[in-house]
Amino acid sequence: MTTRNTTSNFGLTRRLFLLILAINTLLLPFLLWGVLYIVEKGYEEKFIDNAKTETYLFSKHAANNFQTETLRPFFEEAALSGMITYIQLIDVNSKNLITIGAPSSPEKILNDSEFGQNNDYTYYNQLKVIDFNGTDKGTLIIGFDELPTLRQIQLAYKRGLYITFAYIVLTLSLIIFLRPKITALTKQINEQQQELAYRAIHDELTGLPNRNYFSNKLKNSVESCSKDGSPFAILLMDLNFFKEINDALGHQVGDTVLRHIASRLLETARPTDVVARMGGDEFAVLLVSAGPAQAVAFTEKLMMVLHKPIVTAGRTLHIGPSIGIAVFPDHGRDSSTLLRRADISMYTAKQNGLGYTQYEHGLDMNPIKKLTIGTELREGIQNDQLVVYYQPKVDLTTCKVYSAEALVRWEHPRRGLVSPIEFIPLAEQIGLIEPITLEVFKKTLWQYRSWEAKGIYVEMAVNISARNLQDETLPDQLINIVNQLEIDPSRIELELTESAIFSDPDRAIDILKRIHTQGFKLAIDDFGTGYSSLIQLRRLPLSHLKIDRSFVRDMIHNENDTSIVRAIIDMAHDLDMIVIAEGVENQATMDKLKAMGCDRVQGYFISPPLSAEKFEQWLMNSNWKP
């Protein structure tokens, strides 16, 4: 009974074993096929994951170093690995920048979604090249060789015919066990690489881009704007008395101040602009699509924001910046020149206590050359080498000349007639602008008397510098000259730029009010290039407002400029001011200004600046003579 049972049990066990063996024998091909299919898909997925990872890393590298001469060697070295058969970099304008290798098919390259697609043995993957600001720079296309992976799959199928089910199960178990760890490790490595890449181009204290990032963006902007001709501006800024704050209150308070400044810079800048910490207490801003007027407007706004007190460690700190402005292409056509001239402008602003300075010709003049020209200019003033040219202004209601603007020239004995742009900035730096202004004022009033005697009755306009408005004696000097020549001061108009008024508004307003009480007319020149004037305009005793030529010259073709001009005209009329548009260069602009309600105009369409003698001749033959 026991034996039979044992035999019976053995037989049952054997039958069960044979049954299981039979089932396994029948099922093994299907199981083996399934296992190999899984292995195949694993190879394909891994290949695709690696291809996408490589493409992503390459696109990030390209976004941070979007320069053909830098990327080409990098891509060529990557192609030598044998895994990559084709690389193509295309910019946002569909322009082919780099091509390495040849496509497997002459037809249009499409982004593959599966391994082995199109039977061309190449897996194509394309990805947008986007920098840290989210700017689309182009498209990167990489072709990965599928043959090595295909051979691996074929070898796996071949070996699968000879390996055991247990080995397959064990291998599958190991793959299932290890794959999450590999994925996690890959993710960790990618995160570490991204963190290192971020730290390489960002400031640790403020989180702003650092000097390297800013320099690269500046070079890229120079390259792109050199092609399309659009302007941009850079601002360099450091903080006044920051060293004293660090020394007196400690570096922890200094760091807090820097973080506050960084935050305010970001809040003021547009999303397209680049704000960076250059090191220490020095910051930089790259203003995209900004000319001189827009750069000054932004700086005025930024000055107001940065002058707000900072409360930290129980103390209220007032931090004043010194800002230098340089504009492409007016102030330089390469990154090093722009940075140097912005730095020089910043130093000039700090040295003169002006808050900000936009680069002007002569700021970076060689000291010896500056000394030489300064000496010659001083002698030129003494030797009566300054001459005055006159540009007519026309009243659009009467279509007659009503005034002439006096514009100084330097008649150098060797260099000939020198434009004011070449010597006025230097004169302001070395303290000669006051005698030049008074000399021009005297010559203009003498010319007024001469023309009056000939029956030519036109008012006169004379420019006043920012330096003049720092001189408390200016009103008395002007009225003394007028009284000596017995001229009605209401026939004289003094033109002042916004920057001259608002570099020290309280003092300027006080002096202007004193001048106004003497009977002079006052005009704000180059209106629209500043910011704070819109707030303090009502405080000024102005009778005339001149719209800056940068808004007038393109208004026929630029609707934005037209809208700005119309708004300025309406605002000025609401304030009971007469509006003058300068920079009128054609009949169409003049007609449009008249239709918009502009009162008066001047520009080369009417006449360029002329000597006194030629002005008389022009006036006698002109359709606009009074």
Q: What does it look like?
A:
The chain is α/β, with parallel strands linked by helices and 626 residues long. The protein folds into three domains: 12-200, 2-Layer Sandwich (Beta-Lactamase); 211-358, Reverse transcriptase/Diguanylate cyclase domain (Alpha-Beta Plaits); 367-621, TIM Barrel. 51% of the residues lie in helices and 20% in strands. Strands 12-13-15-16-17-18-19-20 form an eight-stranded mixed barrel, surrounded by six helices. A five-stranded mixed beta sheet has the order 6-7-5-10-11, with helices on both faces. Helix 16 (533-536) links the parallel strand 17 (521-527) and strand 18. It is elongated, with a radius of gyration of 38 Å.
List the helices and strands and how they pair.
Layout: H1 2-64, H2 68-79, E1 84-91, E2 96-100, E3 122-130, E4 136-145, H3 147-160, H4 165-200, H5 211-228, E5 232-239, H6 242-249, H7 251-268, E6 274-279, E7 282-288, H8 292-306, E8 310-312, E9 315-317, E10 321-328, H9 335-352, E11 356-358, H10 367-382, E12 386-395, E13 400-412, E14 416-418, H11 420-429, H12 433-453, E15 459-464, H13 474-485, E16 492-497, H14 498-502, H15 505-517, E17 521-527, H16 533-536, E18 544-547, H17 549-552, H18 559-574, E19 578-581, H19 587-595, E20 600-601, H20 612-621
Parallel strand pairs: 10-11, 13-15, 15-16, 16-17, 17-18, 18-19, 19-20
Antiparallel strand pairs: 1-2, 1-4, 3-4, 5-7, 5-10, 6-7, 8-9, 12-13, 12-20, 13-14
